[in-house]
Amino acid sequence: MSTIMFVHAHPDDEGTLTAGAMIRAAEEGHRVVVVFATGGEHGEAPDDLRPGETVAQRRRAEAEQAARIAGVAGLHWLGYRDSGMAGWEQNHHPRAFLQADPEEAAERLAALIASERPDVLVGYDWHGNYGHPDHIRVHQVVRRAAELAGNRPRLFEATMNRDLVRRLYRTALDGGIEDAQGFDPDRPMNDGNPLGTPEAEINLQVDVSAQVARRREVMACHASQVTDIQAWLSLPAEGYAAMFSTEHYVEVGSSDPIRPGWFF
Ligand SMILES: [Zn+2]
């Protein structure tokens, strides 16, 4: 049995990016640990928020439920505040992840690495797929925490395969799906870069086709995030499976071409 630790910026990021691998690893008997850097304070406020209930409380409960379904054995929160999108005034909140000293955040994560002792550590690609400031910060903090941990865990970075998404996007357009949520991977994202990583720079393609049904359940736990999550869940089953049956990772330090494989 190995331990694998996934680090995410906000609750629900695990659903779209790494839930297939989390479920698969747990099914195979590995210990799956998830760390959320922030509480997702600036996500959507659902209509059914109870009086006194905060978005972060709702999202924490959703993340806990999603973790149970995914078979996550350890769930941790670094305790920072969602920084919001680039340029928002929330970027400057004193507790925002963006305002935190990256070294201090890396030390918090390194302490979790020391206690959980993962064999595999998973962060985000260099621009966090689409440039959300908290995602970029996850990339930086995970890299640094891995160094502080003596580079013991093998380090991977979750990304999206821009070429695959482009193929799916075109298929959806050809199939008459309006604009496939405007999810054009070549459009500049928040940081001005296109989505994710080109296939030529990805090392590992993980088959999670057997986990698609449970993955839907995991994503459905994050129902408060209507724009991000319900749009995916509303895809026809075929389109959902095409999008979420594989996951893509960059292995830090590797220049190998993409291969179907697994972490263990
Ligand atoms: Zn996020």
Task: Tell me what you see in this structure.
Helix content is 38%, strand content 17%. It is an alpha/beta fold and 264 residues long. The chain has a single domain (3-261), classed as Rossmann fold (3-Layer(aba) Sandwich). α5 (133-148) links the parallel β4 (120-124) and β5 (154-159). α3 runs antiparallel to α7 and α4 (102-116) packs across α5. The mean pLDDT is 94. The structure holds zinc ion.
What's this model, at a glance?
The protein is of the alpha/beta class and 264 residues long. The chain contains 9 helices and 8 strands.
How are the SSEs placed, and which strands pair?
Blueprint: E1 3-8, H1 13-17, H2 19-27, E2 31-38, H3 55-70, E3 74-80, H4 102-116, E4 120-124, H5 133-148, E5 154-159, H6 162-174, E6 204-207, H7 212-220, H8 226-233, H9 237-244, E7 246-251, E8 259-261
Parallel strand pairs: 1-2, 1-4, 2-3, 4-5, 6-8
Antiparallel strand pairs: 5-7, 6-7
The structure holds zinc ion.
Q: Ligands in the structure?
A: zinc ion
The CATH homologous superfamily corresponds to LmbE-like
Helix and strand element order: EHHEHEHEHEHEHHHEE
| Average pLDDT, all residues | 94
The level-1 CATH class: Alpha Beta
Cα Rg: 17 Å
Largest sheet: number of strands, sense, barrel closure: 8 strands, mixed
So how many helices?
A: 9
Q: What is the fold-level CATH name, i.e. the topology?
A: Rossmann fold
Question: How do the strands of the widest beta sheet line up side by side?
Answer: 3-2-1-4-5-7-6-8
Number of strands: 8
Overall body shape? globular
What share of the residues does DSSP label as strand, in percent? 15-25%
Number of domains: 1
Q: If classified by CATH, what would the architecture be?
A: 3-Layer(aba) Sandwich
Which residues form runs of ≥5 with pLDDT under 50? Answer: none
